[in-house]
Amino acid sequence: MSDQAPSIADAQFEGTGYSYTMSLIRGKYKMAILYCLMEFQPVRFNEMRRYLGRITDKTLSANLKELEADGLIARQEYPQIPPKVEYSLTELGESLMEVLDQLCTWGETHMSGSVVAP
Amino acid sequence: MSDQAPSIADAQFEGTGYSYTMSLIRGKYKMAILYCLMEFQPVRFNEMRRYLGRITDKTLSANLKELEADGLIARQEYPQIPPKVEYSLTELGESLMEVLDQLCTWGETHMSGSVVAP
DNA sequence: CGGCATCCGTGACGATACTG
DNA sequence: CAGTATCGTCACGGATGCCG
């Protein structure tokens, strides 16, 4: 039931797919990490840190854990010296990137107000 | 430097369309505001505040100003007593919503599998 | 190399009161 | 009704140091 036109009076943002998706990619670096993986996976910890610019170990580490917990990325650890860990996108992560990639396209199209020369 | 495949060594996230798009919708409520407008525009200030749940006047006001400055939403003020202001999406805002709407769809599809019990 | 522990700064956001 | 002003809080992220 209740399949009538939604009214703003009782509508809610919480609980929408929107809200859920945003919770996954919130944060200064979440999307950058995913973007990095999409283009260069598998990627090692320090590779990614360099790519992201000024991110700190702590922040990167925390973000990677969250993304892993959310099922978007996979962590592959090689028990050796020196340690080696590679990150990559899961199937879920890849499916999300297909959508997020369009955000990139949109941004490139519309940031023209401030075209940044290469 | 030829036009070979990009290497992670000198790639950068800053400056991508991605980065630009995210800068527009960052924040706890930015997307919720846009989403609200997409479904119910034009929307008045207090209507939106109720829709967004626990947002304060200050935060809502600040976010609306930013979105307006970014050209995503339009503000229509009616000089009368009591005051009346309506917000709606600009063409640019609408074009962004077409993309963001897919985030919603993705979220609805994938949040069912990993519902986190409260 | 790939982390974790700790301390700390900042800015987004909340609560409340007030104004045109 | 549609904000503005002021204050307080807290998560996010930065800097540094240590460890397997």
Automatic annotation (TrEMBL), chains A, B:
Q: Which SUPFAM superfamilies match?
A: Winged helix' DNA-binding domain (SSF46785)
| Ranges where the HTH hxlR-type domain occurs | 16-115
List the transmembrane segments.
Answer: none
Q: Which UniProt keywords apply?
A: DNA-binding, Transcription, Transcription regulation
Question: Is the Methyltransferase keyword given for this protein?
Answer: no
Q: Which GO terms describe its molecular function?
A: DNA binding
Q: Which domain of life is it from?
A: Bacteria
Q: What is this protein called?
A: Helix-turn-helix, HxlR type
Organism of derivation: Propionibacterium ruminifibrarum
